[in-house]
Structures are given as C-alpha cells and as structure tokens.
Prior knowledge:
six-stranded mixed sheet, nucleotide-binding, ABC-type multidrug transport system, ATPase component, ATP binding, P-loop_NTPase, AAA+_ATPase
Amino acid sequence: MTITVKNVVKKIRGNLVADQVNLTLHSGTVYGLCGYNGCGKTMLMRLIAGLIVPTEGEIQFDGKVLGKDISFPPSMGILIESPAFLGGMSGFENLKLLASIQGKITDETVRKAIARVGLDPKDKKKYRKYSLGMKQRLGIAAAIMESPELVILDEPTNALDSDGVALTKKLIAEERERGALVIMTCHDHVTLEGVCDTIYTIEHGRITDEKHMDAEGTAE
C-alpha cells in the first residue's frame, strides 16, 4: 500500500487544522507524528482514515482518491482518542461484535488478538469494570485483530504501565514485520523514536520537520 497526501488543507469552523500537508507513506513502515496538543496530529489521522474530508487537496490509496473513488481505506484498523465499547459486554464479546461486521476473522483470531495485548480472552468481566489500562489494551486489540494493511494508533501507550508500553512497542514492531503501514502518535518521544522509522513534527497543522531513524532509534 502507498498512501499519498497531496496539498491537503482542512479548515474547521474557520480554524486551519491541516495546512498544505504533503506525504508519501509506504507499507512495512512505522510513521510517528509528534507535536504539542492541538497541533493537528489527530486531525491528520482522521483525514487519512476518511473520518473527515479535506477542504482542499486529496488523499490517495494506491492511486484511488479517498472520498471519491473509495469512501474509506480498504483495509484499516484504528484507535483514535479514547477507546469506546459496550459497557455491558465482555472484551471478547465486544470484539466479536466488531468482527461480525466484515466477517473476515474467526472467534479464535479474536481471542488471539486479545491475548496479544496481555488480556485474558476468557475473562467474563464487563467492559464497564475495566481499568483505563485494560480499556486501552482492548482498543489496540480491536485495531490489529483483522491484520489490516493500515494501522492508525493515536497515543496507544496512554494509561499503560511499563509492561504495557513494552508490549505495545513489540506489537507495533510485529505489525511492521507483517507488512502493515503504521501511523502513530505518542507524547513520549523516547517511545516514538524507539519504534518509528520516520517521525514528522507538526506545528499549526503544517509538517515542519522530518526525521528518519536508524535501527537503534537514533536520527540519521
């Protein structure tokens, strides 16, 4: 998969949240977005996910224009802002319900995704009783369970302890290895530099810096 962002501008209620953004993103790569709160990171993710449409410019997936040729990316898993599930259902029941929309994966695949994020797929506990960390882990599981070509993770390490952060970094590396295109944000620059191949700095909706990382997490 190649995602091409061409001269994208997005205005919301007169505010410029994306300003002439140009990117070319490829499968098998982890891209990080960094910047202060409100700089436009999440809005750029929403644009690429097809949740909002550009005011100007276009976003292409292998040459197909988002919002014209296709309504949404053809294969995508997302966690943007806080995960939200049905409070009266268990983690497995929630993910099984989501998986039923496309019918691409089995119950066993759902269970494996839950186990990958460090949760017990047999746990009957209702989602409303989950801790913040458990909710975050389930959100990550939902994003990766169908092995999508595009994985978008907005602050995936939020509310996670050190073991959870380490597990999330391992999962992102595994997603890259299987050929996924991963876009993520993280408030912790050390974590971002440790997992990303390329990091873009965003200020006032505009990309102001591009940093390529080597295998040791050092800028080249």
